Amino acid sequence: MTASAKFVRSVDAISSEEIFAAHEGGKLSVAVERPLATKRDLSIAYTPGVAQVSRAIAADPSLARTHTWASRLVAVVSDGTAVLGLGDIGPSASLPVMEGKSALFKTFAGLDSIPIVLDTTDVDEIVETIVRIAPSFGAVNLEDVAAPRCFELEARLIEALDMPVMHDDQHGTAVVVLAALTNAATVVGKELSSMRAVIAGAGAAGIAIAEILLASGLTDVVLLDSKGAIHAGRGDLAEPRNAMKAEYAARTNPRRVAGGTAEALAGADVFIGVSSSTVPEEHLAGMAEGAIVFALSNPDPEVAPDVAARHAAVVATGRSDFPNQINNVLAFPGIFRGALDAGARRITPAMKIAAARAIAGLALDGLSADYIVPSPLDPRVAPAVTAAVAAAVVPGE
Q1: Thinking of the domain 18-31+64-169, which architecture would CATH place it in?
Q2: Which helix (H) or strand (E) segment is 154 a member of?
Q3: What tens-digit pLDDT sequence spans the chain (397 residues)?
Q4: Is 101 annotated as catalytic?
Q5: What is the largest CA-CA distance in the chain?
Q6: Residue 68, Cα to own-chain centre: how many angstroms?
């Protein structure tokens, strides 16, 4: 059966009626954690008893961490400009996705979260809005914000807020890719730091993957965008809109590879696809022996897994109907839970690498070409990531 045939079958197995019924009325609700059955209950939970707690927080703001839900609440924030593979569909259409993200936070990490979709794409307006409502929550998960605006937005919120902020499309993806690549390198008998890696896609995920690979010791990383390999000699990188790409042109591609996927993949050990591009099979044929292919675009990978397997020793996708699913849910619940548990003010590169190592470690028992990361449903994942991230927090960061 071809990959495309398998995809059709997997989609047809769930009816449209079932999907819409599951979303009717939304996927979230607010649960009350204290009894409200008597007048005494009301007096404790609300007036007059609540006034004592409010006065105490006014006198000592740190009590808000222990006597409100803010320290356990994640704001899932989006402007709806880069939703799944649907693109710029706007805030209202993005809300079902944000509800789903909140459901994952609760299910996998026991964290409450609230979706916030904003009817603006202006970075100044988004920052001002989130800063003004920040006392209501303890962390910010940016979601489905288009590049390159997402880079500025994340950086400015990190600077403005005294709480963990992470754009999951960037860093959650990067963490799981690093975990999977660490184990894939073991499977093929290569040192991670010695590999030549090619990343197709220089948007949010591609840039973050390049960053975490560089931080992990890889030096030969080539980024590709729609115009080909990013290198210091490309004239268009001088344009202001390409400032982020220009920065990475100076930090990657040490062999100054030019051209497209054929040139970049010649002799490469690793291909990581996070774009909507298509990679011809003949380009994969030029990769090194024991190649690793992560074709992560959804729903259609850059190359069908059965085709990639003709030329690669390890193949991964972003889908659940093939082995080795690279899924952000392996990372973000535990990353945020660990950061909040430890009282972290930032999510640092060390915390992300610790998360990747924890995920990779869970797959060592039974490691094979078809099992390089645990299942997203493995109940060990979030606790392991939580513990690793919390241990990596440096007090005051």
Answers
A1: 3-Layer(aba) Sandwich (3.40)
A2: helix 149-160
A3: 444 444 444 545 788 888 889 888 888 888 888 889 999 999 999 999 999 999 999 999 999 989 999 989 999 999 999 988 778 999 999 999 999 999 999 999 999 999 999 999 999 999 999 999 999 999 999 999 998 899 999 999 999 999 999 999 999 999 999 999 999 999 999 999 999 999 999 999 999 999 999 999 999 999 999 899 999 888 888 787 788 888 998 999 999 999 999 999 999 999 999 987 899 999 999 999 999 999 998 878 999 999 999 999 999 999 888 999 999 999 999 999 999 999 999 999 999 999 999 999 999 999 999 999 999 999 999 999 999 999 999 987 6
A4: yes
A5: 75
A6: 28
292 vs 284: CA distance, rounded Å = 10
Identity at 248, one-letter amino acid code: Y
Its sign, for the CA torsion 65, 70, 73, 79, is negative
Fold matches, 18-31+64-169 and 170-397: yes
With residue 166 as reference, give the H or E element that holds it: strand 165-167
Q: Residue ranges of the domains in the chain?
A: 18-31+64-169, 170-397
Which of the residues 6, 27, 39, 46 is marked catalytic?
46
Residues 266, 328, 154: CA angle, nearest 5 degrees: 90
| Superfamily, domain 170-397 | NAD(P)-binding Rossmann-like Domain (3.40.50.720)
292 contacts 311 by C-beta, under 8 angstroms: no
Residue with tokens 């099992």: 371
The catalytic position among 101, 190, 245, 352 is 101
What are the residues whose beta carbons fall under 8 Å from the beta carbon of 108, sequence distance 6 or more?
Answer: 329, 333, 334, 381, 382
- What the block records as the tokens of 349 is 């590169």
| Residue 39 appears among annotated catalytic residues | no
Amino acid identity at 117: V
φ/ψ region of 316 (left if φ > 0, alpha if ψ in -120 to 50, else beta) reads: beta
**Cα 5 from Cα 304, distance rounded (Å):** 11
